Amino acid sequence: MSSNSFGKLLTVTTFGESHGPAIGCVVDGCPPGLAIAPEDFRDDLDRRATGRSRHTSQRREADEIEILSGVYEGQTTGTPIALLIRNTDQRSKDYADIAERFRPGHADYSYWHKYGLRDPRGGGRSSARETTMRVAAGVIAKRWLAQKYGIAVRGWLAALGPLTPAAFDWAAIEDNPFFWPDAAMVQELESFMDRLRKSGDSIGARVNVLASNVPPGWGEPIYGKLDGELAAALMSINAVKGVEIGDGFAAVTQRGSEHRDEMTPQGFLSNHAGGILGGISSGQDVLASIVLKPTSSILIPGRSVNVRNEPVEVVTKGRHDPCVGIRATPIAEAMVALVLMDQALRHRAQCGDVGAVEPRIPAKP
Amino acid sequence: MSSNSFGKLLTVTTFGESHGPAIGCVVDGCPPGLAIAPEDFRDDLDRRATGRSRHTSQRREADEIEILSGVYEGQTTGTPIALLIRNTDQRSKDYADIAERFRPGHADYSYWHKYGLRDPRGGGRSSARETTMRVAAGVIAKRWLAQKYGIAVRGWLAALGPLTPAAFDWAAIEDNPFFWPDAAMVQELESFMDRLRKSGDSIGARVNVLASNVPPGWGEPIYGKLDGELAAALMSINAVKGVEIGDGFAAVTQRGSEHRDEMTPQGFLSNHAGGILGGISSGQDVLASIVLKPTSSILIPGRSVNVRNEPVEVVTKGRHDPCVGIRATPIAEAMVALVLMDQALRHRAQCGDVGAVEPRIPAKP
Amino acid sequence: MSSNSFGKLLTVTTFGESHGPAIGCVVDGCPPGLAIAPEDFRDDLDRRATGRSRHTSQRREADEIEILSGVYEGQTTGTPIALLIRNTDQRSKDYADIAERFRPGHADYSYWHKYGLRDPRGGGRSSARETTMRVAAGVIAKRWLAQKYGIAVRGWLAALGPLTPAAFDWAAIEDNPFFWPDAAMVQELESFMDRLRKSGDSIGARVNVLASNVPPGWGEPIYGKLDGELAAALMSINAVKGVEIGDGFAAVTQRGSEHRDEMTPQGFLSNHAGGILGGISSGQDVLASIVLKPTSSILIPGRSVNVRNEPVEVVTKGRHDPCVGIRATPIAEAMVALVLMDQALRHRAQCGDVGAVEPRIPAKP
Amino acid sequence: MSSNSFGKLLTVTTFGESHGPAIGCVVDGCPPGLAIAPEDFRDDLDRRATGRSRHTSQRREADEIEILSGVYEGQTTGTPIALLIRNTDQRSKDYADIAERFRPGHADYSYWHKYGLRDPRGGGRSSARETTMRVAAGVIAKRWLAQKYGIAVRGWLAALGPLTPAAFDWAAIEDNPFFWPDAAMVQELESFMDRLRKSGDSIGARVNVLASNVPPGWGEPIYGKLDGELAAALMSINAVKGVEIGDGFAAVTQRGSEHRDEMTPQGFLSNHAGGILGGISSGQDVLASIVLKPTSSILIPGRSVNVRNEPVEVVTKGRHDPCVGIRATPIAEAMVALVLMDQALRHRAQCGDVGAVEPRIPAKP
């Protein structure tokens, strides 16, 4: 199976380099009869796009998506859906001077040791440009989950460096360029980012994704667990260094009497588990959280080596995000949606309607 | 592909329930010519075994392993290696009273909603008994990695609830029942666990695994990244709620100038990345860290429902670990070793010896 | 994915060597709630067994099957079903003299060149002993297909060397040791086989399998087509050198006006296609046909080489079938049933009940 | 795994409909460093192209291929290679009258029952147009196999309806539009096809493919056998109804003393096995043979039904091949090459250089 493919029954294969002619993906396994059109991809591609505010990379890509196959008269047909986006704003000269030197903290060195050669333009295949197609594929999954199960998959920025939201309001999230759930803090974030950009440095972040209305029974033990697949999907996003489900690492110091989510006929009394028990959804909201490292593409000079193992100094100019975590929000949503849709199909295959065992306790008290 | 299988080229398929007649696994894809005998499994199975100290479950399994296939005259032949362990110490009556009620924080409720029926004896398939076979399969991977590349995969308990090691000594780890790297603290851990057991409660933990001597170039971008596969493998372990690579969630508040690992001809100057860049090993030590939630099998009564959605009270007697994280150490090592061996084979397939691009900087300064 | 695994959603992994301690398989993905017991395997294992008549190998294996997992209180639970059979009648000394020489027409030479070593006892992994587990797994698939869809998968010997049935009677097939559909010819077959055995030679055969009541819509274009998967499954049976669907190679000389199966509201007017169009079942009976080569294990001396490439003479004594095609009938049935069940689950995953588009023309006029 | 993907380590995913905007494929797993350029695809695409002679479909596609990714400065980089061809000569009106009626012998009826809807233009996804991308992907495999192992994969038309070659000359094959190895018969084939076209009917065919210089040891028992994978690959080609390896169905009436290929230090004495023993290459030439049914797209009216199950008469006008087998030759070559390259990588992963056990007998006496 392709290492550039993801998912067992809903399989997404992506291709393309940052500065190649195009990026694209093939989404295979989508049920027939789902209405989808090029404009349906607009919103999420815009949410991920660079150049939306001064706080993200200034590369401006139109990201016009073309549906090459799998859709007939506005509906999916069950055959593979190919999506294509032409790259239009490559400035490869920005990278010419680092073709032979390895940027610290980047994939340059490891790609070179793996393949013996590499496409240095804009990071080539290792660029976050690839995640555009994840978002595109995720749009299909989100639509299907919403229409068939009423599932909503929504993310937000849960930490920007040392800053964390003091309040939570779903409505606020889409009203600021940070996907921040606390409107009162947006000014503070703006200032933080302005100072950071001026310093030439970058900062880490945390992104949360919550999927609501997930029915109980999704997930395939033992090695296709819902949390296992979420972990793989989220860790595969560029710059992610950790994944948590529910309480995550906070559970290190918790007691069992505190962590276990008690149940009553009226519903669960808490959700420390993040909606997953034994690798299978419990009917509660599924919560995943990730950390995005601070990008290594910064203006502050760093020590490194070149292909001849000679010492060099590296300064990454180009157009980069001082906090890659911000734009990771729609990407993380897409990955969660793709995992959920894949698991939905897998569950239907093995268990049909058996999963709908009644009675079921409500997702929330 | 089987949801009870793991790995692309080194594929491990496990089977068996906690109180069924046996557990076992099939390891497929191992190169021919590796020397292996039943006694080679002894050490790691003992490290994972219950009943070694008063701090773990008192279920006593002999865990005598039988090699059913794939080995001829003491050497692997390239055909699938089947390993079998008979269950001998099942006390199913311990579980009879919870056949119709769901233990909070357990897989009972989610399995029942997935499959419409379940084997309630000892947790059935969702029991940590399954991890015995991971450890067994991991023995094969550890041997191959050690012999062919000199790789060592070693784990330790990095936190027991609120306690963390004040010192680190490889030699100490195997000298106490906690896999604790700080000999001076063992007495403190003993007391902590005794108090905990008496309280009828349980506690969370953190386990670290470090793989040294991993060559650069292992890992398959984009959806077969080394860190993505580690995340899936580790998150699939029972009770794991989070996975970190390198600095993990600490990177939320780090700056790029701090996080990026600078390079010199004499080696990397730090290892925040945990040995993985762009999903590919960098030649540094690979570090993964996981959190194990406090087990929900505790003596303190909890509210729950039964299959008719009636309120019930649940007390889990049986023989349980007050800290499942302790015995998770060899399990986590096994998963890391299996992922590494799989990636080694995948790298060899696509890149042959190309990966051995020279010069290479040393793993450590 | 394991090379010893078969199927995407119903995945069968087999293990074991001819003269090792045991053979077994793991069947993963079976829906929960299917009633199955060890005695349900008896009939088909007996049909495949050696030693039933003087016309097959005289190796006598009890083939007592043990269900190790996946079944609780007589029903499948949705977890992997492991099946085990101990080998009891190995006579490895029969093979001692050929450990260093390659039997012509056998896998000895190719295994040795692949792995650099091999288990020579009874052919090791390349022995048809492995097919016992296919038959066992096939029993599960046959039961599920029959109960859920009323599908019957039945095979027969369609040619024994130069002999072909002059008549066809379903009832006759199970009444003779040849799976021959023409009772009047059984005496002729007995004589033919007696002469053959006396000559020390072997003969080829053709086996047909027909699956009736298959609904339209099963099969996944383009690379998971029903006929493509049948071809892979059947070609993987030992000694098979060709696979046909429907008219097969007879279509070389057919015209389109003859081959195309015309349709009327009352049904198809013919079935040249063997029930598959564009890789998807059409609702007609699915017909597959295979050729089994004459076994190379014969008493007539043959020229060969040894591991040092020196010329040797080989005579295969042991206990062998003069016509391996005879016992292949239940094996071929099993493979067809496993492919169909896998495709049924795949269809259900992607298309749910959409496949049941009405009106549908009857399978037969 | 995607049902529109093929291969385990060299994975080809195709997409596109006959009359959609484009067809394409993603080839993942190709080793880095292979030189490849758009013009390298020209020859094989031309060999498969329609409109080359009056004996094939008159649809004229420029088939200009674009490399979208995976190649940098003329060399593969190890990342996925995406290939795209725009459809330019769709005449969808040709098919308007059959949108609601099912052509007998076509995938119309089965697609409709699978998906509940279909793209009727030119057969949509079930069109042989898809095979263009197989040929394109096959070019990469052929180049790699040739450069690394000196392997040549070559096909020819072995039967055109009742006609079979009376002589065999490699040089003749590429000198006539039939891929016919007997130059003296080409005039006879021309006449046969002219008469056939005039009659409005179509005819079946047989295509052979031979791969020479394949090393011993390729193929993964039990369910990834070289012959099993060839069978799946070849049966997945449109219109194929049967696959043979080596002597194929002729083995039904052969004796073991005749079929087994005896060996001497100077080489094998025959090649009835078609170069494969126990699913693993033996070092002899690999020979596969397929039957292509006569296309059902003919001018002779046929009985059928429409989507309301009413009786209709169908005449397929459009631009069709009276013998689809002719153009199948490069397609079959491509599939054999792709299977071999995939197996080469798989062998390298598990066995490294072990397969090169010496001494090895020559492929030919």
TrEMBL record, chains A, B, C, D:
Entry keyword annotation includes Amino-acid biosynthesis: yes
Ligand binding (NADP(+)): 48, 54
Organism superkingdom: Bacteria
Region of interest (Disordered), residue spans: 41-60
A single GO BP: aromatic amino acid family biosynthetic process
Record EC number: 4.2.3.5
EC class (word): lyase
Cofactor note as given: Reduced FMN (FMNH(2)).
Example GO molecular function: FMN binding
Pathway this chain belongs to: Metabolic intermediate biosynthesis; chorismate biosynthesis; chorismate from D-erythrose 4-phosphate and phosphoenolpyruvate: step 7/7
Protein family (similarity comment): Belongs to the chorismate synthase family.
Function as written in the Swiss-Prot or TrEMBL entry: This reaction introduces a second double bond into the aromatic ring system.
Protein name: Chorismate synthase
Species this chain originates from: Tahibacter aquaticus
Gene: aroC
